[in-house]
């Protein structure tokens, strides 16, 4: 946009470094999946063993020469590194390889740019791209790096690079103002749901764990779901009816990934707040993934970054259809509380178990008991029937309706406070569940 770079096609060479610190190590299989999701055609995968990264190229100069020969032999225009490159490393590699160089952050940003559908999503992606680009402006402007003098050469008093930086800062400021408006609108919607006492449940998890497929299965929606990384980018909210709880709002959110770029976490703060303000998190885990333990740790790390690591959480192990002879089930702790549900969203196995577990966790404070309603409270009786809270009904000698009910206590309190009734007048007996 603001500077010249070597062109980049779809044919690419993938470069992965081995021998780094285990904490910083990337997954080569996930890297190839990221490249495929971005639409790259991988013509070669180069794995380089290096314990001490080079400040100039990240890799050694000998490997740079080998890469350049491979680039020329394969006639590719793009080399993608499975690591974060500094602006100077990226620039030095492009000069040495004579082709476009992209690092892991740039690759993820490109995928996000392809997936964004809503106006908000496009703004968030643009913000992350501009902030990433702001450190990489020193490119093809060497012919304009000095202010000129003389007739016909007097400019605006700043170099082209300075002009680009000023324009970029202005655009970043403008996008942040728009996203702040979106954030306030989301917060207003959340306050409305809290006033209506509608619980919110948010799906979180590693990318491609099956969140959107599960979301569609639970809500009979048609959210885009595909076997690719970051298929979902824009958050989607749907209403879901649960037994004993009533309506809840279910949110499908963007997936997490190992070493998710901090710029993306910042740019998608408004979206990720759907998770940090939820009453319950459903952590969707790919049960058939060999690296699932590491993926779970990465999700917890991102949740801690957005301040959602202390929220109640239910683990949902998805894709048991890929595990032979494995049945859908609920696993509970020593207190009988659901902590894990095993299911297959694609085949619809175990969905009722998940709904049951969510209802138990959200409906901790349930009113279960007998209500004796005089005839003057006929409207309350009708509302209880409408909510499906009445389990049985009889009438006593005084003509009062004796109802066996089960519903969330907050729902009962909402009904009686709306009309100014006193629960003590008609609660015969009750127990908490």
From TrEMBL:
Keywords: Coiled coil, Cytoplasm, GTP-binding, Magnesium, Metal-binding, Nucleotide-binding. GO terms for molecular function: GTP binding; GTPase activity; guanosine tetraphosphate binding; metal ion binding; ribosome binding. GTP binds at residues 205-212, 230-234, 252-255, 318-321, 344-346. It is found in: Cytoplasm. PROSITE patterns: G_HFLX. One of its GO terms (cellular component) is cytoplasm. The keyword Ubl conjugation does not apply. Its cofactor is Mg(2+). InterPro entries: EFG_III/V, G_HFLX_dom, GTP-bd, GTP-bd_M, GTPase_HflX, GTPase_HflX_N, GTPase_HflX_N_sf, P-loop_NTPase. Residues 165-192 form a coiled coil. Signal peptide: none annotated. Residues 199-366 form the Hflx-type G domain. Pfam families: GTP-bdg_M, GTP-bdg_N, MMR_HSR1. Mg(2+) binds at residues 212, 232. Its main location: cytoplasm. GTPase that associates with the 50S ribosomal subunit and may have a role during protein synthesis or ribosome biogenesis. Belongs to the TRAFAC class OBG-HflX-like GTPase superfamily. HflX GTPase family. Monomer. Associates with the 50S ribosomal subunit. PANTHER family: GTP-BINDING PROTEIN 6-RELATED, GTP-BINDING PROTEIN HFLX. This is GTPase HflX.
């Amino acid at each position: 946009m603001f500077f010249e770079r070597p062109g980049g096609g779809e044919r690419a060479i993938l470069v992965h470094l081995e021998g780094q610190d285990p904490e910083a190590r990337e997954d080569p299989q996930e890297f190839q999946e990221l490249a495929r999701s971005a639409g790259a055609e991988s013509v070669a995968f180069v794995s380089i063993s290096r314990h001490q990264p080079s400040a100039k190229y990240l890799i050694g100069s000998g490997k740079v020469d080998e890469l350049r020969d491979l680039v020329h032999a394969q006639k590719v225009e793009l080399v993608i590194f499975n690591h974060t490159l500094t602006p100077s490393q990226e620039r030095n590699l492009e000069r040495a390889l004579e082709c476009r160089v992209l690092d892991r952050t740039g690759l993820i940003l490109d995928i996000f740019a392809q997936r964004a559908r809503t106006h908000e999503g496009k703004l968030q992606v643009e913000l992350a791209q501009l902030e990433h680009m702001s450190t990489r402006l020193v490119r093809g402007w060497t012919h304009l790096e000095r202010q000129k003098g003389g007739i016909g050469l007097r400019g605006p008093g700043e170099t082209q690079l300075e002009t680009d930086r000023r324009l970029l800062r202005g655009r970043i400021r403008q996008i942040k103002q728009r996203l702040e408006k979106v954030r306030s609108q989301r917060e207003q919607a959340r306050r409305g749901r809290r006033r209506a006492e509608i619980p919110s449940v948010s799906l979180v998890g590693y990318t491609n764990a099956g969140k959107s497929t599960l979301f569609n299965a639970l809500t009979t929606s048609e959210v885009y779901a595909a076997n690719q990384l970051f298929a979902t980018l824009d958050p989607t909210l749907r209403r879901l009816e649960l037994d004993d709880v009533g309506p809840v709002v279910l949110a499908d959110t963007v997936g997490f990934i190992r070493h998710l770029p901090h710029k993306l976490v910042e740019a998608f703060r408004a979206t990720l707040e759907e998770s940090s303000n939820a009453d319950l998190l459903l952590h969707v885990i790919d049960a058939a993934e060999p690296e699932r333990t590491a993926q779970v740790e990465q999700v917890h790390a991102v949740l801690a970054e957005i301040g959602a690591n202390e929220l109640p959480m239910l683990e949902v192990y998805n894709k048991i259809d890929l595990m032979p002879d494995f049945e859908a089930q609920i696993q509970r702790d020593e207190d009988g509380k659901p902590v894990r549900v095993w299911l297959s969203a694609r085949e619809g196995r175990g969905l009722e178990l998940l709904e049951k577990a969510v209802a138990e966790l959200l409906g901790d404070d349930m009113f279960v008991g007998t209500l004796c309603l005089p005839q003057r409270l006929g409207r309350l009786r009708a509302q209880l029937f409408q909510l499906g809270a009445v389990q049985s009904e009889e009438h006593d000698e005084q003509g009062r309706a004796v109802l066996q009910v089960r519903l969330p206590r907050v729902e009962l309190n909402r009904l009686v406070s709306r009309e100014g009734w006193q629960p003590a007048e008609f609660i015969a007996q009750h127990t908490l569940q």
